[in-house]
Amino acid sequence: MRQIITLLALASAGVTATAADGIKLNQLGFLPGADKVAVVPAAAAQGAAAAFSIVRAGSDTVVQSGTLGPAVNVPESGDTVRLARFASLQTPGRYQLRVAGLPDSPPFEISASAYQAVNAAALKAYYFNRAGIALDAAHAGIYARAAGHPDTQVLIHVSAASPSRPAGSSISSPKGWYDAGDYNKYIVNSGISTYTLLAAYEDFPAYFQAQRLNLPESGNGVPDILNEARWNLDWMLTMQDPADGGVYHKLTNLRFDGMVMPAQATQPRYVVQKTTAAALDFAAVMATASRVYAPYDAALSTRMRAAAQQAWRWAQAHPRDYYRQPADVATGEYADNDVSDEQAWAAAELYITTGDAAYYQALHAPDLAATVPSWSDVRGLAWLSLARHRKALGAAADQALIARRVDGLAQQLAAAWQQSPYGITLQKQDYVWGSNAVVLNQAMVLLHAYRLNGKRAYLDAAQSGLDYVLGRNAVELSFVTGYGARSALHPHHRPSVADGIAAPVPGWLVGGPQPGQQDKQDCPQPYPSALPARSYLDHACSYASNEIAINWNAPLVYVSAGLQALTPAAQ
Ligand SMILES: [Ca+2]
Ligand SMILES: [Ca+2]
């Protein structure tokens, strides 16, 4: 009975949400030369020739008009929509899209710097999540706060004990980023997050060399994206046991902190269990960092390369040390019982950095699929790195295979994009925990393929991923805090909850819609809908749809910079 009532409540809430639907588009806007698409609810735009127009914002001055595409039903969001396409509008300005019978769209810009601010904010968000440092007003503005989690005396958990570091002894493991809405630090999730920032720099160096983030390190001669990544890399280096090269899986409390500021969270901290996944992710990131930082700090580069190789050797000797959450630990697990992808990724990065063909052999490239990256499936990262560095690879590398894998995955994504009623790459099964990062990782793959072969459809499909998270979605919301006319306001993020400031810490991508609703028993209000694309709750309770995380922001950084760097100028 209770279940039936719940389902009825959700169904009626879903109807209400559908009835209120308006025009959905990227609320920040577009680069002049970009593809431009909006989603229009079909019910309000009757007739095969239903028209739309673009007006100057706040006026009736029509600058362009067009005809909506066919009406298509969308099972995952329960609506019927038509697309408005206006790529030919390239004149910079501030506009709204108008369809008779509907409120005008939110205003949006066409601008040559459309994504520079959101890109900088998405990177600055990492600074706001730094552990072990006070954020001062000069760099953090109203989000200044006291330091938390110095992590200079971290206990060795019994699961991590070794002869030279017995249980209860302590190590110093400062700095790093808080992983997400909580205050713990996890090597596995740091792996893909830090790598993706370094990959953005490797692919778009000129863009990032020109960027200023107002960090404490700004002006030191190192690009700010690398200054920010360094904060986490310094921590990661401390997570390797110098005695054997193994890497601790995480640095954590035994239990999650309350919804308090970092300085008020003072539970004892532990490093927990060395794992194969942690060692391999660490090896991949340090191998990448070794080549990225070489021009700026040769000694650091050498140290990172040695650390990567040491972790690799440990992992080869411990191929199946999977994470098992100890009974007294209740924080995030990042457990993964398939480390074949981590092995391949580490091998690829070590091959690129060292040129040693033995690492390429360890990839087993002919058997390695290309998939959209996630923290637990990093095969795709191996292919993306090989593609990036293909011109410098030795004879061992199969150039044709590298191109085929990256292009093959992009073809699949572009096919889904072409079939999609919303014109996006997300499909019904992609509405998983962190779906907003799924769509952006899809866009990242597409940008790599576009760099490889210049197929315009890949660039346009990548654009749709950024459009989706910035407002072209069923809930008509920008999922990036502080950006867009209507954006997420209540992320599951301890500082945003506890800082006494109404606006959330800016620049964070929230997890996004997914129908699991694993947090509904912890939330004081129901989700507005059970439909996959609408199963999103903008409430701080909602860790399953509204948390923030370092691995989700990283592809936002990559894609927003990539579109700025790669989109051709207007015709
Ligand atoms: Ca894995
Ligand atoms: Ca707040």
TrEMBL record:
Pfam families: CelD_N, Glyco_hydro_9. It comes from Duganella margarita. It catalyses: Endohydrolysis of (1->4)-beta-D-glucosidic linkages in cellulose, lichenin and cereal beta-D-glucans. Keywords: Carbohydrate metabolism, Cellulose degradation, Glycosidase, Hydrolase, Polysaccharide degradation, Signal. Residues 21-102 form the Cellulase Ig-like domain. The active site is at residues 538, 547. InterPro entries: 6-hairpin_glycosidase_sf, 6hp_glycosidase-like_sf, Cellulase_Ig-like, Glyco_hydro_9, Glyco_hydro_9_Asp/Glu_AS, Ig-like_fold, Ig_E-set. Belongs to the glycosyl hydrolase 9 (cellulase E) family. Residues 1-19 form the signal peptide. This is Endoglucanase. It is an enzyme of class 3 (hydrolase). Its EC number is 3.2.1.4. Residues 115-559 form the Glycoside hydrolase family domain.
